[in-house]
Design goal:
single chain, 123 residues, alpha/beta, Rossmann fold, three-stranded parallel β-sheet, two-stranded parallel ribbon, 5 strands, 24% strand
Length: 123
């Protein structure tokens, strides 16, 4: 992930990142992938993260924010970013479930060992 973000941003890093997985590696990479003066946000519940504070935060003046949610303004900015750049959001999902499989999906999410999933309405 870090290499892809650095490549997409010409080596500068992202302005901001959000981790909703609570996975320790994903959390660390969410901090490491932002540029100097960037902001990383953790919204996933539970879990831990280990950072090397000087290079990961202090020397790059990174802001780390924790939040249960983000505003509709932030959601709209995210949607515009995705739309403006033609980002293939579907490619981010490693698993897809139907609504009647939600219980199974959440059991898998809770293990925090998988990628990203989406629950789709019944077809």
């Amino acid at each position: 992930m870090l290499g892809a973000i650095k490549e997409a941003t010409h080596g500068r890093g992202a302005h901001a990142s959000i981790d909703a997985s609570s996975n320790p590696l994903a959390r660390r990479q969410a901090v490491q992938c932002v540029r100097t003066w960037g902001t990383a946000c953790f919204v996933g519940e539970g879990g831990e993260v280990t950072l090397d504070v000087s290079p990961d935060l202090l020397r790059r003046q990174v802001t780390l924010v924790g939040s249960w949610t983000f505003s509709t303004v932030g959601q709209a900015e995210c949607a515009r970013y995705v739309a403006d750049r033609g980002i293939d959001v579907d490619a981010l999902f490693t698993h897809r479930w139907r609504l009647d499989q939600a219980e199974e999906a959440y059991r898998l999410f809770d293990r925090q060992t998988e990628g990203k999933g989406v629950i789709l309405p019944a077809a």
